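User: I'm new to structure prediction. If I give you an amino acid sequence, what do you actually give back? Let's try with this one:
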Amino acid sequence: MEESLMILYDGYCHLCSRSVQWIIRNDRRARFTYKALQEDSFPGTLEEARDTVQLLMAGKRYERSTAALMIAVRLRFPWPLLGIFFLVPRFFRDALYKLVARNRKRWFGERSTCYLP
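Assistant: Good question. You get back a string of structure tokens that encode the predicted 3D arrangement of the chain. For your 117 residues, that looks like this:
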């Protein structure tokens, strides 16, 4: 039986919603399900949690660069090759991730409606 993989993302962020669209195109096995953090049915969403992509897998929550890399290694070739970045300490990976996360709406824009696949 395949593991349950849910991606939680900011549905108003252009970068986030375009990333979800890109993942859908590269997820040939349709392993992932998606949920915008703004959905009313999502319990306990904290404002700071909207600054990071999250992956729920096997009862565990992964965030930031770790979530992004875990998603990439489950996509079609050549994206699993990005798994090499697991060798970079998480502190450094997350520092770059946080830089982009802080500026994503200014750099990429914001949607007026929440994107739901």
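You can read the tokens as a compact description of the fold. Here is one thing that stands out. Strands lie at 5-9, 32-36, 54-57, 60-63.
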